[in-house]
Amino acid sequence: MTEHVAITGTATTTLLQAPWSASGTEVWATPALHRLAPLLSPRVNVWFEMHPLSHTQKSAWWGWALERQPPVIMQEACPELRRSRAYPIEAIKKSFGDYFTSSFSFMLALAIARKVKQISLFGIDMKAGDEYVYQRPCAEYLIGVATGLGIKVNIPEDSDLLKSSYTYGYDFGEYGKEFGAQHRMLDELADWRSRAIEAEQLVSQNQLETQEAACL
Amino acid sequence: MSLRVAILDSSSDVLTAIPWDEPGVEFWASVALRRRHPQLSDRVDCWFGLQPGIERLNPEWFGWALETQPRCFLRDRHGDLTRSLPYPMEIVAERFGSYFTSAAAYMLALAVEQGAEWIGLYGVDMAIHGQYLHQRACCEYLVGMARGMGAEVEIPGETPTLRVRCSDTYESSRAQEQDWCFVPDVTGYMKREGTA
Questions:
Q1: What is the pTM of this model?
Q2: Fold designation for B4-159
Q3: What part of B 118-177 touches A (C-beta under 8 Å)?
Q4: Best mutation site among B54, B128, B138 for testing chain A: the one with the most A CBs within 10 Å?
Q5: What tens digit of pLDDT does each residue of B1-11 get?
């Protein structure tokens, strides 16, 4: 039984750090890897194509897969890919709910369900765009589940996962510039307010003195 | 006795389903809660204010706290708040690292650290905009960890946290239905199925 799964994405910062030929490690990838680095394709142990078949058949990977017939996990087993298997979506949904925002999240959930001892993540930065907005929270949720269950999750230093440019309250980093500006604005508002109160008191005092003078 | 914690934050206009009358539940809140829901202040058991300069950033809460002297975790102990304690950052960081992007994250981490068996999240919406971009992922990571460790984490139905408008790839038509998907308790299932 596989004890270590290396899940790979396409971020070049950490992709090549994956253990492409390590024994005891299964490398899992999506067809996007084939588009980026076709030379790595033969090193992949299991492919995950979670998009509908119509989408898959348009990809460069499809032709390669028809020829090589690699192990593939898809939405449904496909007769043209003899070693394809259907992703166990119902069992996975029962375990993890219905919160999946990327192929990577499906891969993570399956690795957890298979009770591997170690999951390593390479080429998965989730730094920008849709990835960052929608995919990252879900990915980090599943990383949390894995960690909580005692599975060792390895994330390269260069990946953005489980990192932030600031530690709330303690070290605001870049975000602190904005935060510092808020502090300065609050200070200015407090100054402005106290000056306005003083001015109001002064006006009232002057009016009182004027009225008193008029009475005399 | 097992710890049960309801975490209250201020990112919702309406806070619903808070189990006020449930025995044994501790109510923890971010100091920002008072700005939006001052009427709830007296029901909070412990406050969390992790930003530096609490007097200046939350003067209203600070004034109220000077009068009522509530239990609170601040970044550093405050001499004028006699029941304030410094947040145990070193202990928590040893277990969770320094990836904390919101007050809710600190509350979640402390609840997990203290072995809470039930955690409820109320007003911790983190719908995707502004600073919540940074905050949501971290919060979901800690929710995942809590669930993985066997805690039950309850999130009210209308909260966007741990929900998405459609699952990737499978049912894109659901994006049009605008329904949020709910994540059930993963460990409960895994224990039943013998996978955990």
A1: 0.80
A2: sialyltransferase cstii, chain A (3.90.1480)
A3: 128, 133-150, 162-164, 167-170
A4: B138
A5: 689 999 998 77
